[in-house]
């Protein structure tokens, strides 16, 4: 028999839930004011004497200490001098023979540098000339591994012995030896190859040039650090001696090599900065070759006082420089990046000076720019004029730029 609802016992229903007691509070009574909950009360005297620290960036003294002058000088030095890269672990010399013999004694290297740096060695003194020629013979005629070992020792010794008498003269001689040794380095690099083609031969030449450049730049970097460590009143004269030595030794082969000297100008006194920059411009325009001008110009503009930047820019872009068009373009681009530092008067005069350069007019008709290059430089100048509010120059450059763009279109159509 299947149970039905009538036969099942009745289940009592659960009691109703007890009603919660009413708190008797209105909704507005639930609002609680937490103002001042986490603030400590201050007395009248404390409130007058304690100031709440400002929220935001910390000032220089708070962030880096109280001695502002020391920290400012430290950061100024860091911006003017780059860290000297560490030398790579030395491999076997030229790959042809691993040298296991003892290193050249330091007294011998010092004596060699004293001989090389002695002004008498450049005169007609037979004994001095004989001692100086001994180094030349080893580098020119000796086994490559021995010659390489000697030249490397001279370079490292000259880097470390910055107090050497006639350091600049020794620098000129060592640089001359290094540049002359480049041919032997190239020959050694070719000798390492199983098969030497024109491409691999060019690679050997590039490798030898890179070795020479690195050696010279390492010497210059060490000298600049030594000058910065010396008395401030002697920096300008020693900096100039280094520049003169680089010119006499034909080490100013590129504008890029002069960039460290331009960067160092920031460590000179303000009265010494502009003459140093002008001397560097003359050296670069006289000795430096093609390439590297944008960085050099940018460093020069950043190193001199703002009031002198226009004069540096005019000197760099003078019509008697006869620079390559690519180099002139690089200088114009560097000026465009820094022109906002100038006063309105200097900016206007400089833009009026640059327009005929960009358009290859008058004394600058020897330059050759493509229409796209002209358009880019004109657009940079026009943007500067708009930003500075030179409406007349903006309108003039608009017309010039339109003509250049029309010429560019015709060139592309042809």
Short synopsis of the structure:
Helix content is 62%, strand content 0%. With 414 residues, it is mostly helical. Helix 12 (293-303) runs parallel beside helix 14 (325-338).
How does this model look, in words?
This protein is mainly alpha-helical and 414 residues long. The protein has a domain of 142 residues. The protein contains 17 helices and no strands. Helix 9 runs parallel beside helix 11 and helix 12 packs parallel to helix 14. It is globular. About 5% of the residues have low confidence.
Keywords:
about 425 residues; mainly alpha
H/E series, N to C?
HHHHHHHHHHHHHHHHH
Helical region count?
Answer: 17
> Helicity, in percent?
55-70%
Cα(first) to Cα(last) distance is: 109 Å
**Low-confidence sequence ranges:** 47-56, 91-100
Portion in strands: under 5%
For the secondary structure, the number of strands is: 0
Q: Average pLDDT value? A: 79
Instruction: Based on Cα principal axes, name the global outline.
Output: globular
Structural class: mainly alpha
Topology diagram in text:
Blueprint: H1 44-49, H2 60-64, H3 68-80, H4 106-117, H5 126-141, H6 144-160, H7 167-191, H8 198-229, H9 235-248, H10 259-264, H11 270-287, H12 293-303, H13 306-316, H14 325-338, H15 344-358, H16 371-388, H17 391-413
């Amino acid at each position: 028999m299947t149970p039905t609802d009538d036969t099942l016992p009745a289940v009592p229903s659960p009691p109703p839930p007890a009603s919660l007691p009413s708190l008797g509070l209105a909704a507005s009574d639930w609002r609680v004011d937490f103002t001042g909950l986490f603030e400590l009360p201050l007395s009248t005297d404390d409130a007058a004497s304690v100031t709440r620290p400002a929220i935001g960036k910390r000032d220089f003294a708070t962030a880096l200490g109280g001695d502002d002058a020391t920290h400012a000088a430290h950061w100024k030095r860091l911006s003017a001098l780059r860290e000297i890269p560490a030398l790579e672990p030395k491999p076997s010399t030229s790959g042809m023979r691993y040298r296991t013999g003892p290193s050249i004694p330091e007294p011998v290297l010092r004596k060699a540098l004293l001989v090389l740096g002695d002004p008498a060695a450049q005169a007609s003194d037979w004994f001095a000339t004989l001692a100086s020629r001994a180094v030349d013979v080893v580098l020119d005629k000796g086994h490559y591994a021995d010659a390489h070992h000697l030249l490397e020792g001279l370079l490292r010794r000259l880097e470390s012995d910055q107090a050497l008498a006639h350091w600049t003269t020794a620098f000129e001689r060592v640089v001359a030896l290094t540049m002359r040794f480049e041919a032997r380095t190239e020959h050694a690099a070719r000798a390492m190859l199983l098969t030497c083609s024109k491409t691999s031969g060019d690679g050997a030449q590039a490798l030898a040039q890179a070795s020479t450049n690195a050696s010279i730049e390492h010497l210059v970097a060490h000298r600049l650090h030594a000058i910065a460590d010396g008395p401030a009143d002697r920096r300008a004269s020693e900096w100039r001696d280094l520049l003169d030595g680089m010119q006499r030794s034909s080490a100013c082969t590129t504008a890029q090599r002069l960039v460290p000297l331009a960067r160092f100008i920031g460590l000179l006194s303000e009265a010494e900065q502009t003459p140093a920059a002008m001397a560097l411009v003359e050296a670069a325009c006289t000795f430096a070759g093609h390439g590297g001008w944008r960085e050099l110009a940018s460093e020069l503009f950043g190193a001199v006082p703002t009031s002198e930047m226009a004069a540096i820019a005019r000197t760099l872009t003078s019509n008697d420089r006869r620079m390559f068009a690519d180099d002139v373009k690089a200088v114009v681009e560097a000026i465009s990046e820094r022109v906002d530092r100038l006063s309105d008067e200097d900016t206007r005069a400089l833009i009026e000076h640059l327009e005929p350069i960009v358009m290859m007019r008058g004394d600058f008709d020897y330059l050759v720019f493509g229409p796209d290059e002209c358009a880019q430089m004109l657009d940079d100048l026009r943007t500067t004029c708009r930003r500075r509010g030179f409406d007349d120059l903006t309108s003039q450059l608009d017309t010039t730029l339109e003509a250049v763009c029309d010429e560019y279109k015709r060139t592309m159509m042809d």
